[in-house]
Specification:
The structure holds 2 protein chains of 2 kinds. Chain A is of the alpha/beta class. Chain A has 3 domains: 10-41; 52-170 and 348-401, Rossmann fold, CATH 3.40.50; 173-298 and 403-426, Rossmann fold (3-Layer(aba) Sandwich), CATH 3.40.50. Chain A has helices at residues 10-14, 20-38, 65-84, 104-116, 129-141, 172-186, 199-214, 232-235, 252-263, 284-287, 312-322, 340-360, 368-375; strands at residues 52-58, 93-99, 122-124, 146-147, 165-166, 190-196, 218-224, 244-248, 271-275, 295-298, 329-330, 333-337, 379-380, 391-394, 399-401, 404-409, 415-421. Chain B is an all-alpha fold. Chain B has 11 helices and 2 strands; from the N terminus they run ααααββααααααα. Chain B has helices spanning 2-33, 40-58, 61-82, 91-112, 137-159, 161-171, 173-178, 183-205, 216-230, 235-255, 258-275, and strands at 127-130, 133-136. The chains are: A alpha/beta, B mainly alpha. Chains A and B meet through helix 3, strand 7, helix 8, helix 9 and strand 12 of A and helix 1, strand 2, helix 9, helix 10 and helix 11 of B.
C-alpha cells in the first residue's frame, strides 16, 4: 500500500501486514506478561489504597545545608526501606520535600503548600528552631502531625509546645542534664558560655549555667551574633579565672571560635566544651588541630568503632542503607562528613509514623489526634530502625528520650567516646501537659 | 584593661585594613562604572573558595594569594563583558543583575564546594605576647599585606597611564572619550581590578575565619556602610572609615557587650550622614 505522498507504509517497510487487531492482541499479551513478571516484586498493586504522603521541610540552601543534605538522605533511605517492606498499613509511602531556605516566613508558606496543595498526611523535618516555631500555628490550625528533626530549643516541647508537634530527639535541657555534671566534675567549676545570640544559644547557656550555679560553680555568659567572623572582641572578655569555655555556634563561626581561641592562646589555660551540633557534618580534618583536647556532647557516636557493641549490627546496616562509611563520610564523596548525631531522627521518624498508624488504626486525617496519642506513647527498641538505641516517648510533652555520649578529640583528631549517659538520667519533669489538648 | 585595650586597638586596625580592601574594590567600581555591585561579597567569598582549592592542590597559601584573585579577576572580566556592559548606565538594572550574579555564584559554590565550612591553616602559626593575652602573628602579616596592596593601588592610580585614564574617566567621561581614552577598556579593567581586590581580601581573611558559601553576605553589608560613610567614589575615605569603624567596634567592645558595640559603629554612620550626607570624604 502506497501512501499519498509516495512514501512506503510501515507495513511495507517491515515486510508484514499488521492489522489493528494484531496490534491490540500483541499489546495485551505484552502487558499481561509484564504484569505477571513483575508481580512478585511489586508490593503495591492496582486498586490499592492511596499512598501515604509525608511532607518534609529541610534546610537545603542558604544555611545549615549539611544538615539538609544528610537528613534528606536519611529520610529518602528510610522511605525506600519502608516501601520495600510493604509500606505503612499496606499503603505506599511518598515523600514530598521542600527547602526552608532557613527563612521562617518562606518555610511557613511551604508548610502550607504541603498541607493544602500536596495534601500530605504527616509532616517532619527542619533543624532550625525558628523555622519550626513559624510552622506551629499551621500545624495547630490544620491539626497536622509535625515531627521535628533536629531543632534544639528547649521551648519547642516546653513553654511553646503545641498538641500536634512532637520531638523524638534531644534538646538544650536534655543536653544540660546529660553534660553538666561530667563537665563540672572533670573540667572545672568556673564556666564561661560564649554562645550564639538566639534561642538555641540562650537555652544552652541557661540550662547548663543554672545547674553549674546550683552546684556552687561560677558562670559568665557572653552572647555573640551567630554570623560573627572575628571572635577576638568576645574572647578577650572571657574571665581570666574561667576554667571551662563552653561555645555554641553553627557552621563557619563554630570553626572560627575554636581556632581563634587557640590563636589567642586561651586553650592553654582553659578546657573547651561544646555540643556536637556545632561541628556535626564537619570533618575533624576540617575542624583542625585546634580542636585537639576539646570535648563534645553527642547523640550518636560519629565513628562506627565507637558505637556500643550491642548496637554494632544495627549501626552497620543503617550506615549501609544511607550510604555512610564507618568514619562518617559520604560513600560517594569522602570529603563530605555526615551529621551523624542528627540524621538518625529522619531515619527513625518514618518508622515511628508506621508504628503509630498501625497502633491507632489511622486511615485519614480524621484520626490525626489518635495518631498523635499513639506516636507519643511509643517505646522503640534498639534495632534496624533505631540504631541509636532504645527511644522512649513521653506523652505529656511529646518529647523523646535516648542515650547521649561524651566524646573527646584525640591528638590525632579522631573522636573517642569517653562516657555514655543513659536516657534514664536525662528525664526531667515535663514542663507542659498536652494530653488533654488532643 | 591595658591588655584588652591593646588587643582591641590592634585587632580593630587589622580588621579595618581587611575591610578597607573589600570596600576599595566596591568603591572603585561604583566611582567609575556607577554600578552598585551586589555581587561584591560573593566575589570575596569566591576568592576564599578558590584559595582553598589551590591550597588543597599545592599546599601553598602564598601561591593561592596570587592565583585565586587572578581566577576571580577572570570571572569579573567575563561578567563585565558578558553582562554588565550590555546594561551600562542603567543603575537599577545593574543592581538587579549583580544581585542575580550573587545568588548564582553562591548556589554554584554550594553545589560544588558544599555547604560545610572549610578551614585554611594559618600559614604563619606563631603568636606573640600582648600584656596578659597573646596575639597571632599572621594577623599582623595580613595587615602589612593590606597596607602594601593599598600602597600599590595608590601608585597604580596616581603614577601610571592606566591610573590616569581611570581618573580621567571618573572626572569627565565625554572629555576622556574625546581625548581618545578607550573608555570601555577602562571600565572592563576597573571591574576586574575591583573583583581582584574583593577576592584578595577573601584569601587574606580565609585563615582567620572559615570558608563557606555564605561568608560574603555580612561582609557586603559592612562594605556598603564603609563606602557610604567614607563617601561614594572616595577611595581614601573608604580606607579611613573602615579602620575607624573597626576601632570603634573593637574599643567599644571593652566597655559594653560586643553586640551592643555594633550600635556605636552604626551611630557613627548616622552621625556622619546627618552632618555630611555625601560622606566623610565625598564631594
Amino acid at each position: 500500500m502506497k501512501e499519498g505522498n509516495g512514501k512506503k507504509s510501515v507495513h511495507e517497510v517491515m515486510g508484514t501486514e499488521f492489522s489493528r487487531r494484531d496490534f491490540l492482541r500483541a499489546t495485551a499479551v505484552g502487558a499481561a506478561g509484564l504484569a505477571v513478571g513483575s508481580l512478585p516484586f511489586a508490593p503495591f498493586t492496582y486498586g490499592a489504597e492511596q499512598p501515604i504522603r509525608i511532607g518534609m521541610i529541610q534546610e537545603n540552601t542558604v544555611g545549615a545545608t549539611a544538615y539538609g543534605y544528610w537528613l534528606t538522605k536519611a529520610a529518602r533511605a528510610a522511605v525506600a526501606k519502608l516501601n520495600a517492606e510493604g509500606g505503612i498499613a499496606g499503603r505506599k509511602v511518598e515523600l514530598v520535600e521542600y527547602d526552608t531556605k532557613v527563612n521562617p516566613a518562606w518555610a511557613s508558606s511551604m508548610f502550607k503548600k504541603l498541607i493544602l496543595e500536596d495534601k500530605v498526611d504527616f509532616t517532619m523535618g527542619s533543624v532550625h528552631s525558628g523555622v519550626q516555631m513559624a510552622v506551629f500555628p499551621l500545624a495547630e490550625q490544620y491539626k497536622m502531625p509535625y515531627i521535628g528533626g533536629g531543632a534544639m530549643a528547649a521551648g519547642l516541647t516546653g513553654k511553646d509546645a503545641i498538641a500536634y508537634y512532637t520531638r523524638i530527639h534531644t534538646h538544650a535541657r536534655m543536653q544540660a542534664a546529660a553534660g553538666w555534671k561530667w563537665g563540672f566534675d572533670n573540667l572545672g567549676k568556673n564556666w564561661t558560655f560564649l554562645v550564639a545570640d538566639y534561642a538555641w544559644g540562650h537555652s544552652l547557656a541557661e540550662e547548663f549555667g543554672s545547674r553549674i550555679k546550683a552546684a556552687g560553680g561560677k558562670t559568665q555568659t557572653i552572647l555573640a551574633p551567630q554570623n560573627t567572623s572575628d571572635f577576638v572582641p568576645y574572647l578577650q572578655k572571657v574571665d581570666p579565672a574561667t576554667k571551662v569555655l563552653f561555645t555554641a555556634f553553627l557552621g563557619a563561626p563554630a570553626l572560627g571560635v575554636m581556632r581563634q581561641t587557640v590563636e589567642l592562646g586561651l586553650h592553654k589555660r582553659l578546657q573547651r566544651y561544646t555540643v556536637i551540633c556545632c561541628t556535626d557534618g564537619v570533618g575533624q580534618e576540617t575542624v583542625g588541630k585546634e580542636s585537639a583536647g576539646a570535648h563534645y556532647l553527642s547523640y550518636y557516636p560519629r565513628y562506627a568503632s565507637q558505637v556500643p557493641k550491642e548496637l554494632h549490627a544495627f549501626d552497620k546496616a543503617y550506615r549501609k542503607a544511607i550510604g555512610m562509611t564507618d568514619d562518617a563520610k559520604d560513600a560517594s564523596d569522602p570529603k563530605n562528613t555526615a551529621t551523624v548525631s542528627h540524621m538518625w531522627t529522619m531515619w527513625t521518624t518514618p518508622y515511628m509514623i508506621k508504628l503509630a498508624v498501625e497502633k491507632s488504626g489511622w486511615k485519614d486525617s480524621k484520626k490525626n489526634a489518635d495518631f498523635m496519642k499513639a506516636f507519643n506513647t511509643l517505646k522503640v527498641k534498639a534495632g534496624p530502625w533505631a540504631p541509636q538505641g532504645d527511644l522512649v516517648m513521653r506523652e505529656n510533652d511529646h518529647q523523646g528520650f535516648h542515650d547521649h555520649y561524651l566524646e573527646e578529640v584525640q591528638p590525632n583528631l579522631s573522636l573517642k567516646v569517653i562516657a555514655r549517659v543513659p536516657k534514664e538520667k536525662l528525664m526531667y519533669d515535663a514542663p507542659v501537659d498536652l494530653r488533654s489538648k488532643l | 584593661m591595658a591588655s584588652n585595650l591593646a588587643v582591641a586597638v590592634l585587632n580593630g586596625i587589622v580588621w579595618g585594613l581587611i575591610m578597607a580592601l573589600i570596600a576599595l574594590g566596591l568603591n572603585l567600581i561604583f566611582g567609575l562604572l556607577h554600578i552598585i555591585n551586589m555581587a561584591h561579597g560573593a566575589l570575596y567569598m569566591l576568592g576564599a573558595v578558590f584559595s582553598w582549592y589551590v591550597i588543597e592542590l599545592t599546599g601553598n597559601y602564598w601561591l593561592a594569594l596570587v592565583a585565586a584573585p587572578l581566577g576571580v579577576g577572570l570571572i569579573g572580566l567575563a561578567l563585565e563583558r558578558g553582562l554588565l556592559r550590555t546594561i551600562e548606565d542603567q543603575p537599577l538594572v545593574t543592581i538587579i543583575c549583580t544581585f542575580g550574579i550573587m545568588l548564582v555564584l553562591q548556589q554554584l559554590v554550594l553545589t560544588y564546594f558544599g555547604g560545610t565550612a572549610r578551614r585554611i591553616a594559618l600559614p604563619i602559626p606563631g603568636r606573640f605576647p600582648l600584656f596578659d593575652l597573646q596575639y597571632p602573628v599572621m594577623r599582623i602579616v595580613i595587615a602589612a599585606i593590606s597596607v602594601s596592596v593599598m600602597g600599590g593601588l595608590w601608585i597604580f592610580l596616581n603614577r601610571t597611564r592606566y591610573g590616569l585614564w581611570i581618573r580621567a574617566v571618573v572626572q569627565d567621561r565625554e572629555m576622556a572619550v574625546a581625548l581618545g581614552i578607550p573608555v570601555h577598556k577602562v571600565y572592563m579593567w576597573t571591574f576586574v581590578l575591583g573583583s581582584v581586590l574583593a577576592a584578595f581580601s577573601g584569601v587574606l581573611a580565609a585563615p582567620i575565619v572559615s570558608v563557606d558559601f555564605m561568608m560574603g553576605r555580612e561582609i557586603l553589608i559592612m562594605a556598603f556602610i564603609i563606602v557610604i560613610v567614607g563617601g561614594m567614589g572616595s577611595l581614601w575615605g573608604s580606607v579611613v572609615t573602615a579602620v575607624v569603624i573597626s576601632l570603634i567596634h573593637g574599643v567599644g567592645s571593652i566597655f559594653v557587650v560586643p553586640s551592643t558595640a555594633t550600635v556605636f559603629s552604626l551611630g557613627f554612620m548616622i552621625l556622619v550622614l546627618l552632618v555630611r550626607p555625601q560622606g566623610l570624604f565625598g564631594e
